[in-house]
Each structure stands twice: as structure tokens, then as C-alpha cells.
From TrEMBL:
It comes from the Bacteria. Belongs to the acyl-CoA dehydrogenase family. Residues 240-353 form the Acyl-CoA dehydrogenase/oxidase C-terminal domain. This is Acyl-CoA dehydrogenase. CDD domains: ACAD. One of its GO terms (molecular function) is flavin adenine dinucleotide binding. It comes from Croceicoccus pelagius. Pfam families: Acyl-CoA_dh_1 (PF00441), Acyl-CoA_dh_M (PF02770), Acyl-CoA_dh_N (PF02771). Its cofactor is FAD.
């Protein structure tokens, strides 16, 4: 297998690494989280200008038309910086859904605005009755002439604070367990009957809860059924989450290794103690396993096993990343859980990545069923 990056991928990797080096450290990251949207508007515009938003989209849609390798490369680099800008949540995933199922006029209205960073969109699918990634959806969409009327609640739309629109899952049938009787609907943030409540997620970013009370949207707001397109979008999103988690793991491991080499106890660096060496060696092995699984996924892009390999990588990394985070925190002691160090900031982000949109056990079940 050839794991070498091509020229475009090397360029993207260098661009994102330079962005992280120039604009991110512990203090600036904390500062970005205090801004109105929970991230830097300047950084958001710059990421769009650099083409980071456009990577997985076709050239016809205004994207770069690159494959899964490029997606993994940029999100791993973003992960190393523990970047707070919601590239996946507010642009890539909703944009891929639009590209897969929205009418041409809707795509022309929204996709260029998303890829340029002018607008943001959030996915609203999780409800209070949802468990472990199930498709339990009580929100309803009833047809009224040429419109649809939506009613229901979504407990969170990740990175949904101050979004310009939401992709809302809703039932067209009355059965909340009917796997085929639901669809995505594009709901503008200023729609009548939509109530948005903002709150902070565990990683410090802003999210939103939605209440839809007789929200009326045109028939064109309904995304057409495209199982293959949506499945591809979900697979790329899971690959991005896994690659970002890998980057965060690398950052936390490198910082801890440096700490153990310089922090002295009993007249010697902590890294001289054999028990700590063994624990770091174990986490290094987990880190390399995680990298191997991401690489296995990206080299299978275009093959039948791609989605299964992505699920396998995410199921493993979601648990392994938290284990590594716990170890790195323990090596640092009480400071490890605070926002004073990137260790604590990174671990909080790993908590979100490991549980959104489903826990690793659900991903593992899907991986096993595909075997």
C-alpha cells in the first residue's frame, strides 16, 4: 500500500499546519471560545479562503474535488491544533447532505455560501428519545399543499449557535420507529415558529436546542432520498472525526512526552522512571494502531470496504482516544484537567468526538454487522 501524499495533499497539509502554528496556542484557543459564536470569525474566513471547507466537494459544486485522503489529512492537522472552528459541523457535513439530496436551486443558493464561509448550517437530528444513534424521530413533517409544516424538538444541533439554517430530520409518517418514513428539511434560522436556545457543549463550544412549532417550509426544502449519497457523507464525517481525534492524540502525547523529559522528581526527570516509560510505550502503541486504522480506511476509498473500514477506525479511536487522554491527564496531575494546558482542552474535544453523533459501541455494532 502506498501511503505517500500527492502534491495537492502535501500542500493542504502544509497550509493547515501553518494556520495552526500561526494562530493557535493554549491562550488564543481559550480566547476564541469566549467570542460570540464560540470561535474566531477571522479564522473561519481564513479557513474558507485557504480552501479547507471545499476539500470533499466536487468541482461542479465549487469544491476541490479531492478524495478521502485529503479529508483525513486536513482534519488530522486541525486536530493537532485542537482547532475550535466547526469546519465539519457547520460546513462539510451539512454541505455534503445538500450536495446529495437538495434541489439544484437550493444547492446554488447555499453551497457557495457555505464553502466561502459566508453562511453556516447545523445538523439537528438528536431528540430526547434517541438512544445510541437510533433513528427514533418524533418530529413530524405534515404536507400542507405545496409546503411542509414541522413540529417537534431537537435537544441539540452541534455548533448550531448563530447558524444561518438547520437540517432537521422529521417524520412524514406517524411512526417514530419507521426507518424509511423520514427525511431532511432545510429550516432557515429566522423561520417563524422556530425557537433556538443556545448553550455550551462539554468542549466549550456553543450548541443549540431547537423547538419547532408549526414551522412552515416549502417543498423544495425537503432533501430527496439518496441513501448512497448520505451514507458517503456520513462515512467522510466519521473519517474526519477519527482523523481529528488522531491529531489531538498526537498533540497530547507529544506535550506529555516533553513534560516527562523536563519535569523532575526525586532529583531525576519523570521520564527516567520505568513504570512511566511502560505506560507511555503502551499509549504510543495505541496511537500507532489508531493511525494504521485511519490509513487502512483512506486507502480503501472507492472500494466496497471503505465504509466498514471507517466504522472500524472510529469505533476503536473513540475509546482509545479517551484512554490516552486519561493517561496524559494523570501524568500532569491536577493541572491536566484544566484549560490552562492543551491536555485538558484536547480531552474535552475528544469527549465530543467520541460521542457525536453516536457512541462507539453503536459504530462497532454497525461494523460487526457489515462483516
Amino acid at each position: 500500500m502506498n501511503f505517500d501524499l500527492n502534491e495537492d495533499e502535501e500542500m493542504l497539509k502544509a497550509v493547515v499546519e501553518r494556520f495552526v502554528a500561526d494562530r493557535y496556542d493554549v491562550e488564543r484557543r481559550r480566547g476564541y471560545l469566549t467570542e460570540t459564536a464560540g470561535f474566531s470569525a477571522e479564522n473561519w474566513s481564513l479557513l474558507a479562503e485557504l480552501g479547507v471547507m471545499s476539500v470533499p466537494f466536487s468541482e461542479e459544486a465549487g469544491g476541490l474535488g479531492l478524495d478521502a485522503t485529503a479529508t483525513a489529512v486536513i482534519f488530522e492537522a486541525l486536530g493537532r491544533g485542537i482547532v475550535v472552528e466547526p469546519v465539519l459541523e457547520s460546513c462539510v457535513l451539512p454541505g455534503l447532505y445538500l450536495a446529495a439530496g437538495a434541489e439544484e436551486a437550493v444547492q446554488e443558493e447555499w453551497l457557495p455560501a457555505l464553502l466561502s464561509g459566508e453562511k453556516r448550517m447545523a445538523i439537528a437530528s438528536i431528540e430526547s428519545g434517541s438512544r445510541d444513534g437510533s433513528l427514533w424521530i418524533e418530529t413530524t413533517a405534515k404536507q400542507d399543499g405545496e409546503d411542509f409544516v414541522l413540529d417537534g424538538e431537537k435537544i441539540y444541533a452541534i455548533a448550531g449557535a448563530q447558524a444561518d439554517a438547520y437540517l432537521v430530520s422529521a417524520r412524514e409518517s406517524g411512526d417514530a420507529t419507521d426507518n424509511d418514513g423520514w427525511a431532511w428539511f432545510l429550516v432557515p434560522a429566522d423561520a417563524d415558529g422556530l425557537t433556538i436556545t443556545q448553550w455550551r457543549f462539554s468542549d466549550g463550544t456553543w450548541t443549540a436546542s431547537l423547538t419547532l412549532s408549526a414551522v412552515t417550509v416549502p417543498a423544495s426544502a425537503r432533501l430527496a432520498s439518496n441513501p448512497d449519497g448520505f451514507e458517503r457523507a456520513d462515512a467522510l464525517a466519521n473519517l474526519a472525526r477519527s482523523a481529528e481525534a488522531l491529531g489531538i492524540m498526537e498533540c497530547m502525547f507529544a506535550e506529555t512526552l516533553d513534560y516527562l523529559r523536563t519535569r523532575e522528581q526525586f532529583g531525576a526527570p519523570l521520564g527516567k522512571f520505568q513504570v512511566l516509560q511502560h505506560r507511555m510505550a503502551e499509549q504510543y502503541a495505541i496511537l500507532e494502531q489508531s493511525r494504521a486504522l485511519v490509513e487502512l480506511a483512506i486507502v480503501s476509498d472507492g472500494e466496497d470496504g471503505f465504509i466498514r473500514n471507517v466504522d472500524g477506525a472510529r469505533a476503536f479511536i473513540s475509546d482509545a482516544s479517551l484512554e490516552l487522554g486519561h493517561e496524559m491527564i494523570q501524568f500532569h496531575g491536577g493541572m491536566g484537567v484544566t484549560d490552562e494546558l492543551s491536555i485538558g482542552q484536547g480531552h474535552k474535544r475528544l469527549l465530543v468526538l467520541s460521542r457525536w453523533p453516536e457512541p462507539p459501541l453503536s459504530t462497532l455494532d454497525r461494523y460487526a454487522l457489515a462483516s
